[in-house]
Amino acid sequence: MNIELPLWPYVYGSPSGVGNIRSVPEDFIVVENLSFEPSGTGEHAFLQLQKTGENTEFVARQLARFADVRQRDIGYAGLKDRHAVTTQWFSVWLPGKADPDWTQLESDKIKVLQAVRHARKLKRGVLSGNRFKITVRDWQGDKVKTLQQLEAMKAHGIANYYGSQRFGHGGHNINKALAMFQGAKVGREQRSLYLSAARSFLFNQILAARVADASWNQALADDIYMFDGSHSSFKSEQPDADIIRRLAESAIHPTGVLWGMAKPIVALNALEQTVIDSYPELAQGLCACGVEMARRALRINVADLQWHFVDDTVLELEFTLPAGCYATALLREIIVLP
């Protein structure tokens, strides 16, 4: 079995233009927003770094060498794009030790913006969101349609697809997951990547089915809903007037399953079950690897979405998305992505 990435359906029609989003790193700017304020005291040094053209794991390794600590003593909240300018937090466990001179870490690609202490290691996912500033160059297209799509996304949100970078070039990571499930040996980092790709693919397939039948932002029988800005959820066998109202107000969102083991066993809705049954190798492999079931919102609100045509060929966008959500899920609605 070999899986090819499909072209998942769009919410707001086909893309209205073409353009380049990473001509230079400064065209893709990301700033992490922590969900808490570091306390100022504790064994962990929290560093806010601005990095250009470097991936998160490479910088984490540099930090470990610089501070003379183990790799596992470095924490970060999420992976960030390499081909970008990203402002990101890291933690370094320094029990009983003074901070080194962090300015010596700086280079033409890494700047230290803040250094503050905190009691606990920085954990994955503890962000309130990410702020993006993206410049689309060499833009060509239908400006009227683009503006209509942007207005619609600002008002009604976007489908919460995982971005193509989750799956590797051409979906490579999904097929590597299949090979791993069949016994291929992989390293620990690769194992995590492949499991994430397999589970994300199944989620995108579920979301795609609901986009296709226009239920991605509507209520179905046996749906589980997530509160906006929260991971808390609740189930409703049949939608009532209150659920329909809150969906219309974007206060809650339908969710899709992130497949894995569940104890006790959780029943899926009919659409989810159909998708999971269509990919038994992925579904069984995830469970065999001990991945735990979770939920993910099918829709997300786009906070403070702003846009500006600098000229006829340059479009600037600014917006904030919840942690774990992809800017490319918005961009794919208005421009054809490579």
TL;DR?
The protein is built from eight helices and 16 strands. It is of the alpha+beta class. Among the domains are: 36-125, 2-Layer Sandwich (Pseudouridine synthase), CATH 3.30.2350; 158-300, Pseudouridine synthase (2-Layer Sandwich), CATH 3.30.2340.10.
Describe this structure in words.
It is an enzyme of class 5 (isomerase). The protein has 338 residues and is α+β, with helices and mostly antiparallel strands. Among the domains are: 36-125, Pseudouridine synthase (2-Layer Sandwich); 158-300, Pseudouridine synthase, CATH 3.30.2340. Helix content is 27%, strand content 29%. It is built from eight helices and 16 strands. It has helices at residues 56-67, 143-156, 172-181, 188-212, 241-248, 270-278, 280-288, 327-331; strands spanning 17-20, 28-34, 44-52, 74-76, 85-93, 110-118, 127-141, 158-159, 223-227, 233-236, 252-258, 294-297, 299-300, 303-311, 314-321, 335-336. The strands form three sheets. Strands 1, 2, 3, 4, 5, 6, 7, 14, 15 and 16 form a ten-stranded mixed β-sheet that branches. Helix 3 (172-181) crosses helix 4 (188-212) and helix 4 (188-212) packs across helix 6. The two termini are 25 Å apart. The model has no long low-confidence stretch (mean pLDDT 95).
How are the secondary structure elements laid out?
Blueprint: E1 17-20, E2 28-34, E3 44-52, H1 56-67, E4 74-76, E5 85-93, E6 110-118, E7 127-141, H2 143-156, E8 158-159, H3 172-181, H4 188-212, E9 223-227, E10 233-236, H5 241-248, E11 252-258, H6 270-278, H7 280-288, E12 294-297, E13 299-300, E14 303-311, E15 314-321, H8 327-331, E16 335-336
Parallel strand pairs: 1-16, 2-5
Antiparallel strand pairs: 1-7, 2-7, 3-5, 3-6, 4-5, 7-15, 8-13, 9-10, 9-11, 11-12, 14-15
Helix pairs in contact: 3-4, 4-6
